[in-house]
């Protein structure tokens, strides 16, 4: 049964995170009792399954989501070619959540997109789906792309992910995830789906995206298949999240809205899922 959270809020205070908290608590405790050589041997002897993170489950009295989701973060040097392998190594998993309350615990401690610098990306994808074109859930799909003028990314990103978590797109399992890409001259919002050839589904996603972001009627939206995205990057086998769409100069219109929501300054992004 789909659940819609048009304006979810949390009743619990977010857990405070220390600046140097990398999530390696268990490792630090082991270092105090084991020699480095012993620890390395023990780590190699561990079954691979024991290294997997525990599945996220809703806590008592929490509001479960229809799907579990994972936050990711990536940053790269602009202008440098990115192979599929190097991109996968660069992307960092922040953490997975299964309820409305768990989402807010992560989100309240993350820097807002408008406060990020350089070529940085936040990704929010269903658990088990990597934010890569080659992932089995993504390879036959595509994404809607909207380019924003600077200053609007934080509000648009929040509205988009709340709509996605609340199942407002009403397209079943088609939604894979969403990305906000921070660039020097503009920011980019995109939402990914599984089946690029399903025109009815992509049209519904487009219309819902216009509504939840309150986009002006003349806003330019581009749908790009992941197959085309891979072909567009010269010399690449595989994909990066380079959202350089084939726009003509006169098409590079960005959204101009007066409503600029001010966000409080948040703690730095934590790149470990153990936070």
TrEMBL record:
Known Pfam families for this protein? IF4E
What main location does UniProt list? cytoplasm
A biological process (GO) of this protein is: regulation of translation
| Localization terms from the record | Cytoplasm, P-body
Question: SUPFAM superfamilies recorded for this chain?
Answer: eIF4e-like
Record's InterPro entries?
TIF_eIF4e-like, TIF_eIF_4E, TIF_eIF_4E_CS
The UniProt subunit note reads as follows: Interacts with EIF4EBP1, EIF4EBP2 and EIF4EBP3. Does not interact with eIF4G (EIF4G1, EIF4G2 or EIF4G3). Component of the 4EHP-GYF2 complex, at least composed of EIF4E2, GIGYF2 and ZNF598. Interacts with GIGYF2 (via the 4EHP-binding motif); the interaction is direct. Interacts with EIF4ENIF1/4E-T (via YXXXXLphi motif); increasing affinity for the 7-methylguanosine-containing mRNA cap.
Protein name in UniProt: Eukaryotic translation initiation factor 4E type 2
Instruction: Name the species this protein comes from.
Output: Crotalus adamanteus
